[in-house]
Amino acid sequence: MTKRLVQGNEAVFLGAVKAGATHFAGYPISPSSEILAQASVYASKHPEFRFLQEEDEIASANAILGASLAGAKSFTATSGPGFSLMQEAIGYGHKVGIPCVIVNVMRVGPGTGMPTMPGQGDLNQTRYGSTGDYTSIVFYPSTVAECYEYTIHAFNAAEESRSPVIILSDAFLGHLNEVADLDSIEVPVVPRTLEPLASGSTRLFSGVATYPDGEPATADSDEYIRQYHEGRERSLEVAERYAFHEYGWNKDAETLVIAFGITRRVAQPLAPHFALFRPIRIWPTLDKELTEIAGRYKKIIVIEGSDGQYANVVERMLLRRVERVPLLGGRMSLEAIREGLDAIGMLPAESAPSGSESPAGSPAAPASSRVG
Amino acid sequence: MAVKDKLKTDLFPTIWCPGCGIGLIMQQLATVMDGLGLDKLNTVLITGIGCTGRMGAYMNFESVYTLHGRTLPVAEAVKMVRPELNVIVVSGDGDMASIGGNHLLHSIRRNPNITVICNNNEIYGLTGGQTGPTTPQGTNTISSPAGAAYSPINLQGLVNTNPNSFYAKTTVYHQGPMRKAIKEAIEWPGFSFVDVASQCIENNGRRIGFSSANDMLQNYRTEYKAAPPGSTHLEPHQTGIVKGQVPTGAVPDNGPAGSGE
To answer: I need a surface site. Which of A55, A56, A183, B242 has the fewest CB within 10 A?
Structure first.
């Protein structure tokens, strides 16, 4: 494959195949349905890849758990409302320790919301959507090439953490077409870590609290705490090796902008005026990295497609107030960002609103340093 | 006896109530598995939430103790990825036909080669005794003190929406026929559903007037009659096996997912 036009959703699918996925179960839902379509076409040509369009998202999420236990690297793709339906299964995946990947191409919520408009309002849901305590690993790319790259990382992190890892995207990025040479992106693939079903053991994979031998442990707080810490430490240790983020733009500026996913791209023309911190690993939070960088800046502005979900997280991380530019209702434009900055008195003098909507920033991939 | 090898007897006694019907199903399932040569290398159990779901822990197989109502999506996916495995779902009436109802509808439609054994005690036993989808109309339960308001779901009718399905009705009293039904269900090359009437004395039976588990078992003996051989439909309180048509035409013989087949 050489350089060619690739769609964001397509890049996610190709990344999954590259990572060794051999099973997909899903349900059509805008703006993610292209991934389902790609999977069905691929399966028709590659019998070793198994595909099923399920009756709903609950079936999809549970199916990928079963497929993974059976030995296949497995994934599904959905949007906010479907992601809500998958929460119980996600919690089960964390409790039992099942590697799999869930792609959430975000729309504007809540409810059925605005199915074809980009939003970033699922951040809290990716961390806390299921009942109880668990440690989520979540990545959110900003370019089509990154959709491919970070999907492979997601499968790797899933194998190492033995948990469901989430790839976030959005209606804009999912349907964005960019020129990319995906073959030139090299990410080593972590092989399957979980012994498949019926390999000689008699394991019990239980969502209910049990002792290792299968006896119920439904009243043993010490055993719960032991198992919980084991899972949390494992996920945190794995996440450390996936501390992807970007720090760039004008590092000498007075103000730090925090933006991620598609908003980072839309805000690109503001680069001369601000420093940028872009989390690519959304969860666990990049406390160490952001704390060190944020200390250099008098002010911080979080530009995001929700009413402050990440801004609240940043304030907790840094124990300081931040400014907010919420991009609501799917209005992901430079114009909207300028208006938001103006509203908080932080619009740079040289970049007054031009009166024309420019939905994307520079078409080139981010030039600043990416680390992780 | 090799049947004991199918059970994790070191975990006995089980947590089921004295007089529970589930143990009777487990015993016959273990017997069938021994006879068919099913073991931990060629068979997996998928169990649902409810007292029945505990069965996986007591058997010498890999088992997946799923979320409530979600045995079928898990089972179908396991079978799709590992077609060489025998996949047996063991669950209860509420798990299969209420919260799991949509999956039941669609699994029947898709006809995967899996076997479902349904411990049908006509109640939500583990939570104390609430009305379930198969509770007979008028039954006094915790959530229907004035009598269950609606007629129960027609499990046989649902299974038979697919002409290739296998449906059996039996009871835990009729151990020989139950064993036969389970065996033939496992052997059936498609979706098979064994509907086993089973007693829950503690959280159902006592409330509706039975004095003991044996009382309930004797009730199965007197109430249920074998359907005439060759019956294509079972009437209420008839035991029997109704086999659909074996699908014709080539079925792709895929190996495990990722194998290149």
So the answer is: A183
